[in-house]
Amino acid sequence: MHRGVTIFTHQVLKNPNIVPFKSTCFYSQSNSFTRRANGFALFRLFSFTPLHRRVPDPDDPANLMKEDGVSVCSQMWIENFREPDRIITNLASYLRRFELWVLAYQKVCADEIGSYMPRSSITRSALDDLLALRNAVLDNRFKWGARLEFFIKSPKDKTDYESLSKRKIKAILTTTQPAPFQDKLVQEVLFMILEPIYEARFSQKSFAFRPGRNAHTVLRVIRRSFAGYLWYIKGDLSAILDGLKVGLVISALMRDVRDKKVIDLIKSALVTPVITSPLDGGEKKKKKKRKYQKKRVLAEDEPKPDPYWLETFFGFAPEEAEKLPSWGHCGILSPLLANICLDELDRWMEGKIKEFYRPSKSDVIWNSPEGEAEQGNTSWPEFVPTSGPDKTRKMDYIRHGGHILIGIRGPRADAATLRKQLIEFCDLKYMIKLDNESLPIEHITKGIMFLDHVLCRRVVYPTLRYTATGGKIISEKGVGTLLSVTASLKQCIKQFRKLNFLKGDREPDPQPCFRMFHATQAHTNAQMNKFLSTMVEWYRYADNRKKAVNFCSYIIRGSLAKLYAAKYKLRSRAKVYKIGARNLSRPLKERKGQSPEYQNLLRMGLVESIDGLQYTRMSLIPETDYTPFPSNWRPDHEKALVEYIRLDDPKTLKEQRSCIGEQGLVSPQDYISMLVWNYKRNAIVMDQLYLVKTAGSHTEGDDQLLLSSNHENYDPKSNEEEETEEGFHASQM
């Protein structure tokens, strides 16, 4: 091809008459077409004409991606939130969407290699393997938990499984191994398909393992909705998170999803056994001497381990948020399946809440028939005024993972009856044997522990100001109860002791943090500052936020002071504070503890700047966040979905147009119609004026009569049928 073009160009340069240029854009009558001009014209011609047109490869998997995977997921969320009650029968069409598989590959690779992989960076071989995995799933050839034969491997997995020795193969087949890369891909695709289906159906009473909801949301809901309750039932159903019978999980799943291929995939993931190996040789490890461990250099594609401050914060996980379900080969699907199973309990409790509610007219707060009307002071919802002897019977419920909390306003006998019904329901539905000890009934005066926060009640006597009839402002002393949500310092001490930061109960004594012994002072302080910032955020909604954070700062500061005293041989914490200041921001040295050249070295950039510890004084700790929490709260992404669906509904447009018409305004569509109508009227009037003037028999009165017809009343409905495309374009001009 290249040789043919070269010969043709050479012949044209020698004989310009070969190509007729009379009708081309390069021909000019004023200048003769020379060889140089001819060559320039050909250069421009060939520069704008592609010589090589790549023929699309029909076997390229990239041709299967018609749109972006994120847009496919967004469409699934919109469809399920638009019709949340419909039964899903065809999910195989989404399993065939190659865009979802590519998006799942990007997500799993981000977890594997620690960085995001753009779609343009995915190799052709990876796309081919990904397509083979998709076809295997659709053809029922995929098997969970494969150890040696894979359709696709991780980008960082360079192992040649065909050349392994028998000993290594036996070790792979008989010992505990991480989940295969292809299993994670299938789990991610199933998760992206099933999550929007069930998020549109889940109860608003559950808050664990769901997007946009966390432990802080639970604490805010408790402060908003659990004020005034006397009896509390705290239940531990975490045995469900350890696993249920496969039949119970599949039956719960088939309430809303009836697609056989998806159900079979999840069922095989639950049924396929997970190979685990017991830990042996513990005594042999004790006999071995501890060798010096060199610092291991991470590979380029290897993700960094969690920093020390993050590991420490994970150690503070409360009991309710500590357990994460892991069922068979389901992986990230396990929390979703647990919520699907426990959603039946949520729906049952919602029915009990409506059944239990009995309003009282003499009650100050809850006296509406439905019980959903917002009453009282919404900016101070944790305060409940004291009512008369006839009080409203009311109940509320919340669930975080496998732990539930039920608040009851009424006699204790009602709480005991509800507990009995709850035990029977769990036995019938989940085949779990519960007793009264696992569902204790406690009074609010004893303090209810939930998510490492204590719920208690205090009697307060605030001054109530309100406007009476006639606009008169009345101030009087009131009495009521205040729901207090405080951080448990006892639980905080327990968590610090578990992490070896202190010892003792009554007078906790900080212990040196030897994990950071070989780190620099700047790095150690930076790690602990991140940990303290996270603790400040964790206790954001606690009434005693300042006290709890100040205690954490005292423990961390004392631990670092003891560490520095041992590291720099200063013998006591007092000497460390004297040299390094209260917040340990000054540099410490081994002998005299003074470093006069530090500022000069810092200026030259030869040493790290040392940040002092934060929150060393009570005044530096932020106040408790008392932002009002709405009763019908929903996450931001659900609000956006609901608003988008509402605006996309044609009924909403009709309502807006009718509202605009009632207010005497003009909608944009009517305004455009009016412009078109005015254009037509002006054209007709001008034509009539021209005809009259050319006839020579017109007067000034005729002009005024014709022009006044342009100002008649406009009716947009009568003009809709006359509106044409030509008139619309004319109005735009």
From TrEMBL:
Residues 701-733 are annotated as: Disordered. One of its GO terms (cellular component) is mitochondrion. It holds the Pfam family Intron_maturas2. InterPro entries: DNA/RNA_pol_sf (IPR043502), Domain_X (IPR024937), GrpII_Intron_Splice-Mob/Def (IPR051083). Residues 485-589 form the Domain X domain. CDD domains: RT_G2_intron. GO terms for biological process: mRNA processing. PANTHER family: NUCLEAR INTRON MATURASE 1, MITOCHONDRIAL-RELATED (PTHR34047), NUCLEAR INTRON MATURASE 2, MITOCHONDRIAL (PTHR34047:SF1). This is Intron maturase isoform 1. It comes from Theobroma cacao (Cacao).
